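Late entry, FE2/S2 (inorganic) cluster complex.
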Amino acid sequence: CVIPAAGVAGREITTVEGIGSLSHLHSVQQAFIDEQAAQCGYCLSGMIMMTVSLLAHTPRPDDVQIRQALSGNLCRCGTHLEIIKAVHRSAELMAQARAKAP
Ligand code: FES
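Prediction complete; structure with ligand written out below:
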C-alpha cells in the first residue's frame, strides 16, 4: 500500500491472490484461517505475504523474528496474538508439506 506502482516497474509482483486458490489454499492462508487471525481483513493480504516472505528465509521463526518481520503491517483490529500463532502454524504446515514432498 505504501509503494507507488512506478517504484516496482519491471519487477515481478506476487499478490495474495497468486499464492493459492479457493480449492488449494497456500499453507499460510490455511494457517490464518485455522488460527482465526483475521477480523475485518484490512491487514490480511500484507500479513500473509510478509509471512510467506519470512518463512522463505526463516522456516522456524521465533516470536521476536515474527514481530520484526510483521512490524510494518498494522492490524487495527488487534488480532496480533492470533497472527503470531498463525505464523507459527504456517511454519508447521509448511514443514509437514516439505516432509511429504517426494
Ligand atoms: Fe482488521 Fe487486521 S483484521 S486490521
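DSSP finds four helices and no strands in the chain. Will revisit in the morning.
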